[in-house]
Amino acid sequence: MDYTTLEKIVRESEKPSRFEHSLGVVEVCQVLAKRFRLDVELSRMTGIFHDYARYMDGSDMLAFCLKHGIPVEEEERKSPMLLHGAVAAWYFPRITNIWDERAELAIRHHTLASPGMGALGAVLYVADYSEKGRRHLDDNDRLVIWGKANLEEMVLEVLHREEEYSFTVNRPLARITAQTRDYLLSGGRFAL
């Protein structure tokens, strides 16, 4: 399947505002993939598809994950809407016929991050957080994030911002999010 066909499928499954967000994510994914010499077409495909399951009911997502043996983080169990990435990752190869672990890991971990999400996952994580339609950032914030020297520093910047927000709403970081932060702070790198 090519990107144009997948975009049509996603357009039919998302509300217009969500689809505009997905297009914004694609735009950032494409730029970052080019910059870091990753597979640009695969990054576009993951960008457009990452929220494919966003409108599925939370309890249905949890049941889906349990039925299909998809590991669920404690925070996802408490807030099953976070599982839309896990469900979309399961659907991605079955809809696109692209069986690429990099894409599945990227889509799976775009909500909470993971040390194992890979470079493509880092691209998607940063793009989802910082695309131009996101109102919690201004252009200067985006420049700070996108101006970092590598994907690890970009993800750390996003994680720092997520941690500050979590503190203001009195909610701890998800365990896997904190593990990602610690992994990167200890010099960990995302697999290509």
Quick overview of this protein structure:
Helix content is 66%, strand content 0%. The protein contains eleven helices and no strands.
* Ends distance: 23 Å
Tell me, rounded to a whole number, the average pLDDT.
Answer: 97
Number of helices: 11
Percent helix, as a range, is: 55-70%
Radius of gyration: 16 Å
What this model shows, in words?
This protein is an all-alpha fold. The chain has one domain: Hypothetical protein af1432. Helix content is 66%, strand content 0%. It has 11 helices and no strands. Helix 7 (101-108) packs parallel to helix 8 and helix 10 packs across helix 11. The longest helix is centred in the N-terminal third of the chain and has 20 residues, at 16-35. The model has no long low-confidence stretch (mean pLDDT 97).
Properties at a glance:
192 residues; Hypothetical protein af1432; 11 helices; globular
